[in-house]
Amino acid sequence: MTKLNNLADDQWEELNEIIMFGYGRQGKKMYKTLSRDFKIVAIVDNSPAKHGEQIDGITVLSFEQAQSLLRKYKVIVTTSQYYYKTIKKQLEEFGLTENRDFVMYQQFVTEWYYKFKGQINVLKTDVSLTTHCTLNCENCMQFLPYWKNKKENSLEEIKVNLDTYFRCIDYLLDLDIVGGEPFLYSKLEEFIIFLGENYRSRIGYVGFITNGTIIPKREVLKLMKQYSIDVSISDYSEDIEYVNKVDELCKALDEYGVSYMRNKNIDWFDFGFPNNRYHYEGEAAVKHMQYCNSIEHVLDDEKLFYCGLEWAAQKSGLFPIEEKGYVDLKKIVNGSLEQKKAILELIMANISDGYLDFCKVCGGFGIDNNNRVATAKQYVRNTH
User: Fold this and answer.
1) CA-CA-CA-CA torsion for 109, 331, 2, 295, nearest 10 degrees?
2) Terminal CA-to-CA distance of the chain, rounded, Å?
3) Are strands 121-128 and 102-104 parallel, antiparallel or unpaired?
4) Measured between alpha carbons, how far is 196 from 173 in angstroms, rounded to an integer?
5) The pLDDT value given to residue 384
6) How far apart, in whole angstroms, are the C-alpha atoms of residue 189 and residue 157?
7) DSSP annotation string for 323-378
8) What is the pLDDT of residues 79-126, one digit of tens each?
9) Strand (E) positions, 197-296?
10) What order do you get walking across the sheet with 54-55 strand by strand?
């Protein structure tokens, strides 16, 4: 079984021009690579606030404005799974068919390059520099308040991980550098230089994900500009008091010409884990994992983990490790294209039983999770 055979050869192989549907956080990341490999005829978005915006001379259109184009070109939907359901319904009611006329970007990136170009192109991977953080959010998606042994990862360990990873893949569309708080990392300059000199040309988007409490040093900001590394700021200043710090960070990024997104009003899912676990079994667990469709893949210990939530639960000692949840890159690093395809099958959730054990206890990111928690609610640190 494979999940890499949805796009018919006679429909998709000779692809040169596309329409992007969605220009939010994911769309902006995907634009860098899609515009490199294809002519983007139009960008469509359902948000009226974006209509008329110019992206390299391309005008962002409403669905209604784009209708004369939608039947002429293949449509790549560049939104999260959560919004894809709505757009899928829009396009199908317009008379288009999934995987023939339009496709979710995750499926497209993973399948198209492999099937028609013989390449292992990965949509997204996270690299964690440290599990130390300036905040202590009770509902942190890495469960950091519950970690017993937080640490900074050694630069050598990170280098080995990246070297092994890029010997297994051809191209990465989106690399997120995370923590904890990544700007706490003591060897930021050395890390950026290593990444920039060795692998920047093989990555579309590179960005730090920060909570905005730390202002990087001047030398770090210069290197970020030099190697086109962006910043995604999770701005919780409406929930906790540090707005001046976020403003200061934005000012510094502007000064050095570093591109950034300042994300406010962030919706936090209730994962339930570890204190109020969900209970999914059998077919319900399979469907639950399909709804979640996680793209939070993590590189660690020369392995690629499917789910960042499960990885964090395991690293913190809160959940047992399960082998089907990762690909051991050391075992395929010198392998054939067919062997390396295991990476693509993993990130498309083609795993035994159709779900991870962690899916049975986690609420996930999917449309079946309507429960939310307070954003950035602080947990009293244990000082003992």
Assistant:
1) -40
2) 51
3) unpaired
4) 15
5) 46
6) 16
7) GGGEEEGGGTTTS-HHHHHHHHHHHTT--GGGS-GGGGT---SSTT---B--TTPB
8) 988 889 899 999 999 999 999 999 999 999 999 999 999 999 999 999
9) 203-210, 230-234, 260-263
10) 54-55, 58-61, 39-44, 17-21, 74-77, 102-104
